[in-house]
Amino acid sequence: MExxxxxxxxxxxxxxxxxxxxxxxxxxxxxxxxVSVFLTANVVHFESMKNTMADLWxxxxxxxxxxxxxxCFLFLFYNEIDLSRVLQGTPWFxxxxxxxxxxxxxxxxxxxxxxxxxxxxxxxxxxxxxxMSEAIAKQFGNFIGRFLxxxxxxxxxxxxRIMGIKVTLxxxxxxxxxxxxxxxxxxxxxxxxxxxxxxxxxxxxxxLGHGESFCPVxxxxxxxxxxxxxxxxxxxxxxxxxxxxxxxxVEPGVNRIVTPDKEGVGT
Length: 267
Hints:
Number of strands: 11
Shape: globular
Radius of gyration: 27 Å
Helix content: 10-25%
Strand content: 25-35%
Distance between the termini: 114 Å
Order of helices and strands: HHEHEEHEEEHEEEEE
Number of domains: 2
Largest sheet: 6 strands, antiparallel
């Protein structure tokens, strides 16, 4: 018996690897995948959501959507063009609920990725004309969140002079409302921020994803002490992708002189 135990090797075969066959290479290779979660406490109906998002994105190569957790989904694209177009178009929503997206990088485990960031275009108002530059835009962008892009073409909405900045927001933090700018020792102005495509946010804590009726702050203070530090003025008017009216169109009620041509036909 002792001789049998002496010759027993407890790790026999443990170092011999298995060869895995028949795996789906699309799902093993996540470089064309977006992992996502909806910022809501409500139920997200999977079938309705995947059809709605596919119709919104209309990917040229198609899309496969997989449910991987509570309100968490994996979107598999079949070419880089479709995936990039979706990322460029953020933020996206389903039933007014914000969709947080992350492109999976090599070596990342989608189950461990913190889905707490979303990209937004922000309009900055009330800036003196001398501050309309990319360098200033980067400072504002990194104050609001993380600077991504500056739009130098977006300088006016009606009579208002604005600066357009694309930023990454941390949805765990309150939305920034304004920033004090000192021009001289005795002079300052406030730059105001408005967020494009802004959906549900709280007027009490300033965070995305819930309204004031469901704000956790209510649990820690008395109702009479609740203050509303944020309001609807943070929602920006739409300006990106607006259709420009044709110069040939004449609005109803506008008098135009009809000049007859040589054959007597009006022109």
